[in-house]
Amino acid sequence: MNSAKHFIRLLALLAIAAAAFFIVRSRVVPADFGKLGHFRASAIADAAAREPRHLGSAACAECHSDISGPWSKGKHTVPQCENCHGPGMLHVKVVSEDSVDAYPDPIKKNKNALRPTTGIRECEWCHLKTFERPSILKSITSVGEHITAMGGTFTPTSKCTDCHNPHTTAVK
Amino acid sequence: MTILWTKPEISRREFFEKCAEAGAKTFVFGGLVVTTANLLLAQDPPDARARAEGAPAKGTNVPIYGFVVDTTKCIGCGSCVRACRDENNVPDGFTRTWVEQYTFFPNGEIIVNSPNGGADGFGEDIPNRNMPEELGQLPVRGFFVPKLCNHCINTPCIQVCPVGASYVTKEGVVLIDQERCVGCGYCVQACPFGSRYINPQTNTADKCTWCYHRITKGMLPACVQACPAKARIFGNVSDPNSEISQILANNRVQVLKSYLGTNPRTRYIGLDSEVI
Q1: What secondary structure letter does DSSP report for A128?
Q2: ipTM for the whole complex
Q3: What's the angle, vertex CA B250, arms to CA B245 and CA B255, rounded to 5?
Q4: B83–A132 C-beta distance less than 8 A
Q5: Is the pLDDT of residue B69 over 60?
Q6: Residue B101: enclosing H or E segment and its boundaries?
């Protein structure tokens, strides 16, 4: 009958192992895991909770009507404000002195929490001629050639915005 | 009973061997039984197929999202890449969406270029762009192809996730649970489109979410809103009157790497056969 002890010990060990498994499992696996599939159901709400950063040009117009007015009547209404100036949410928060600590974004270090514009790089993104670019836009081969062709003098500090209003494309 | 316990008919050595054998058999055949049961029992709900095809799920008003990239309209300005980076805090050196520049030469050579994912734009001063002179010939054909997560219906990335951190929502958007992900990188390897990366800030997998935080609030994804050429169209494909449904109805669309059978929800207009 001594051997029966071995059997009981084995069963006890198994029971402890099973209990440990279920205890650890209940602690490690989130409660809503598997509710909608093989994932944590509340992860969907987490993903949706993040704050949008690009607000759209209509939001910019609320404060900057002096710029958005001429912009909306000009020829440059296809690119939106945030295409060149960067996302507006941080700018709104900085201007209204809300906390921006939650934003580990390099943009917040910049002036007004917007992307600094150069007045030349932003234009080149669309208007520099490359072979692959569909020729639906007015485009130039280089800024220097364009200025020379227009009868100006190209200097290293020349910018597109020296002559063009970037918001309306009107030549100054 | 007593005889069996008091008088072992097998040696100690044989007993342990039998134990090991039984254990191995349980492991192998038990696994087979569980796998078979999973395959037989966990069939897709009846409307899963219809949903996968873009039809609305029965009895619900859940939108099914789709994405169309019109490569014939892309001007390669990189606005989408910059908007995506700013919107989603994408770390330097990584991209959730990127633009590839394809240039074809008369000798059959093709140069594919995507400096910094296209975030700095494309121009004559971009490295590798002086290739025509080296080859002594001028390009004959060229275009831009924006790329992003294809949000496949048959996802290789979700299948390989060992912790259930990758999943698809009822709207058809493939997402990553950042709390659950252990950063093993299996999904990065499994994705045939290179859409995923390990974010060095969080050490978890990351990718395009179609701006799930925006689309659930009724906004457009940041890249779609930023695109000045209307090369990116996003919308509800289960609504036949939506813009994207009209575009899908009136255009010949293609998907990337159709031979892999992942059935992407991101469709392309004007996709060249040379695009990989």
Answers
A1: B
A2: 0.85
A3: 75
A4: no
A5: yes
A6: strand B98-104
Per residue in A53-62, pLDDT tens? Answer: 999 999 999 9
The CA distance from B276 to B264, in Å, is 14
Alpha-helical (H) ranges within chain A are 2-28, 43-49, 57-61, 65-73, 81-85, 88-95, 121-127, 143-149
> Chain A within 8 Å of B216 (Cβ-Cβ)?
yes
CATH number of residue B223's parent domain: 3.30.70.20
* B151: Cα separation from own chain's centroid: 5
The A residues from 24 to 83 touching B (CB cutoff 8 Å) are 30, 33, 36-40, 43-44, 46-54, 56, 78-80, 82-83
**CA B41, chain centre distance (Å):** 27
> Does residue B187 lie in a domain region?
yes
> Scanning the structure block, which residue is given the tokens 């919107």?
B87
Query: How many CA within 13 A on the CB side of residue A78?
Result: 13
Inter-chain contact B142–A132, Cβ cutoff 8 Å? yes
User: What tens digit of pLDDT does each residue of B12-49 get?
Assistant: 888 899 999 999 999 999 888 888 877 776 555 544 44
Q: Using CA atoms, how far apart are residues B273 and B102, in angstroms rounded to an integer?
A: 12
CA dist., res. B148 & res. B59, Å (int): 31
Record: contact B73-A134, CB cut-off 8 A:
yes
Give the pLDDT mean for A66-77. Answer: 91
Compare CB distances from B78 to A48, A107, A125 and report the shortest one's residue.
A125
Comparing CB atoms, the residue among B124, B168, B201 nearest residue A130 is: B124
Nearest alpha-carbon partner for B111 in B128, B126, B98, B125: B128
Domains of chain A, residue spans: 2-49, 52-116, 118-172
- The tally of domains found in chain B comes to 1
CB–CB contact B122 A115 (8 Å): no
> How close B181 gets to chain A, by Cα (Å)?
11
Assigned domain for B129 exists: no
| Residue-range definition of the domain harbouring residue B203 | 52-98+145-269
CA distances from B178 to A21, B86, B171 (A): 25, 19, 19
